[in-house]
Amino acid sequence: MIVSKFGGTSVGDAAAIRRLVGIVAARRTERPVVVVSALSKVTDALLDLEQASDPAAVSTRLAALRDRHTAVATGLDLAGPVIEPLERDLAALVPWLATRIGRAWSAADRDFLVSHGELWSSHLVTAALAAADLPAAWFDARRVIATDSQFGQAVPNPAEIRRRAARLLQPLLDDGRIPVTQGFIGSDDEGWTTTLGRGGSDYTASLLGAALDAARVEIWTDVDGILTADPRLVPDARRLPEASYHEAAELAAFGAKVLHPATQLPLVEAGIPCWVLNSFAPEREGTRIVAGARPAPITGTSPVRSIAWKKGITVVNVRAPRSFEAVGFLQQFFTIFARHGVSVDVLASSEVNVSVTLDDASRLPGLVADLEALGAVTVFDRRAIVAVVGVDLRGTRGLSARLFNAVKDVNIEVISQGASEINITFVVREEDAPTAVRALHREFFSAA
Ligand code: ADP
Ligand code: ASP
Ligand code: MG
Question: Which residues are CB-contacts of 249 (< 8 A; sequence separation ≥ 6)?
Fold first, then answer.
């Protein structure tokens, strides 16, 4: 079997869902499980409901969501029954939302609400496949995707998912059905709806792929594959024909939105290949993600293979008094981070000074208060990480000079070659990041 996951723009309107039907039909003999995201922008629209300050605002927003889904159903010539689950959910949401207007929501509330995006899109897709005479079977992902109770960022339990997939999904495949299920959502031990974090549908696809011993996992999106840079910043970014698991994971961790950072985790051990493909041009080759540290090159001998960036970063710098003993300092520093449950991305340190980056500043105040016991704390917000990912970057002579020469007009604040030989990362002001990414891309990909 295979898993084919379709992202928000790949189910975004009737034309997109028609393309999806064509793609799935062409794979019928490979026994696909179809995983879908919410229609593009619907997840944001659902989360925005928390900001609605009165019942009128809530109904306007719900009406817009209803119209969006109804328009897609109409565009697909799908009959009334498709709209029924949508109408039922919307009716149930009105009183649910009414009790929450103007109040801060719990993370569990948010997950329950936001799960509707995937639930609705999966109903539309199931009906569209059925209308094309394909034996689609709608399946509630929460029955299989077992997670812990960290709402908004739940951690899946692969062993349990494997057991449940064998019991609940495998029989559908054995019956010749095409299960259609939701990305992103799961449920905890008590049956509460959870989510795997933004962009989590990719992760669902790979979890199901590993659980069902898939021959491959396909991530259908709106670009030609993993590219040498974010195409919104670099329109002439090129496709990577191949990437290693490690490389794909690093790119995702450093902001390349094309894949959820955890996507490769379930696949590595089983050696299941993952393809990133363009649902707007299904005939194109896409990117193949495989084991092995030396994937096929993109251009000549360039050791750099891609450039990622991530905004919304906060840098925390702590300078200890000179008298402090270095080892003790770093130890205490990390103990404080661990106590606050905050993980750090980029790290640069000298004996008495340490800088780290955080991409979630929500726990910053308590963290800073504790760090002040160690030394002088400075916080810089609105920063961005720029990461250059490639093959054996540390072992490549002259690379740093080339790299820093390319961005000489940008003020670089923290540099880290990190634990991995495949990336070099630095921190810049958010507004400087696009310039840095473009300059690096020009340096490593235009001349070649
Ligand atoms: P989907 O809804 O299909 O999951 P996403 O929006 O989550 O799609 O991810 C695809 C987007 O990722 C692309 O449209 C592109 O703008 C962005 N992106 C950022 N960096 C890269 C990169 N290196 N390669 C490909 N796409 C990238
Ligand atoms: N719909 C969810 C999101 O927008 C999950 C996904 O698209 O992967 O984050
Ligand atoms: Mg995505």
Answer: 261, 263, 264, 265
